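Example record

The entry below shows one chain as it appears in the dataset: sequence first, then structure tokens.
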Amino acid sequence: MGSKNAQKRERQNKKRQLRNKAAKSRVRTEIKKFLLAVKSNNKEEAESQLKLVVKQLDTVSRKGILHKNTAARKKSRLYKKLNALAAE
């Protein structure tokens, strides 16, 4: 059964887990949309989508859902893809 404190911690952890899972899923979805825009050579849409992705990555890293270096690495790789598209 566990103590009341342990039960509360379990409830809190489940709630946080769901919130973090949803946030990570949102980021992955936005990244997929960006990659789709890059694949279809749509530079304007890719740029606007990248803005959203960067904003979300900054948010999740600030909240500790993703490590700040992980967010920075992802942003760097996405910017590389956009710059490669712009160079064509």
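Notes for this example: The domain at 4-87 is CATH 1.20.58.110 (Methane Monooxygenase Hydroxylase; Chain G, domain 1). Residues 48 and 85 are 14 Å apart (CA to CA).
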